[in-house]
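Input sequence (343 aa), recorded before submission:
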Amino acid sequence: MTQFSPDSPASLPGPLMIDIAGTALTELDRQRLCHPLVGGIILFSRNFASREQLTALTAEIHALRQPPLLIAVDHEGGRVQRFREGFTRLPAMRSLGCLYDRDPAAALAAARDVGFVLAAELRACGVDYSFTPVLDLDYGPSRVIGDRAFHRDPAVVSALATALGEGLKQAGMGTCGKHYPGHGYVIPDSHVELPVDDRPLAAMQEDLLPYRNVALDAVMAAHVIYECIDCNTAVFSNKWIDYLRNDIKFEGVVFTDDLSMAGAGVVGDMLARVQAAWGAGCDMLLVCNSPESVALVLDNWQPVADPIRGQRVLNLLPEVAAPDLNAAVYRAALAGVLSIPAA
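Predicted structure, token format:
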């Protein structure tokens, strides 16, 4: 068994995805991003000043090591779009669901356009990956999902998410379905509370349908307790990860949601959280907005390296050149996005 260490070859990405504070790298940032436990970085609005600055930042990050770190962002559209100035304002996914109710073919075409524009604009600035699409069902009262969801009907969610994924793929970007196994039913926001879903597994099958129906490169597990399977949140539940692997037959990357969120506090400090999530079967663990926690983990965590998990993450790196934003295919997709009616 091989442990990650500063002396080990960095042929595969480590299991941590961390963040930085500003719009440029500090020396401490460079040191941490080169640590063998780190395999990716997630960017936030605070890391963005302009397209030119973002492009320079991502180029420096990619140049730090080989294979390059995976650079990711939450860039769904609507309320969750980290980069605004110089980027197309993407609609909330509910607007595509509303369009589907009136004109399914138009909605599917619009979803493909959204996926392509989203990915093309990010990749033009050196960002590899966005945590999208949201597969949660729109039950109504959720404090955190709301219009981020496509629709209440899992068949519609599956169709629109598939179409959006086709647009992402056309631009060379992978997909990430979230928040497994479904965050739409519970009311509390797991950023600040610990939601508990008390439905039986049979009642959750609707929520799970998109994970069965949509071709996904990754999923992000939820900080929600689903009592029908486990007393741990999905992020820390080997039972839920086993269900994903063995029942749903998913073979891609399993991301945690941010381990700094209140919903993750049930297992203890950050070191306990990464150990629990890794032990449950998650492949890449997000530690965000807590630099002291990153230091704690990098200094003290000694997991056994897993080449299979590392290769899964490596597979998320783009394999084709970024689309040309002056090309006709981008301009046509952009026109399609701009014509989507508001929900």
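Checked by second reader. The chain has a mean pLDDT of 95.
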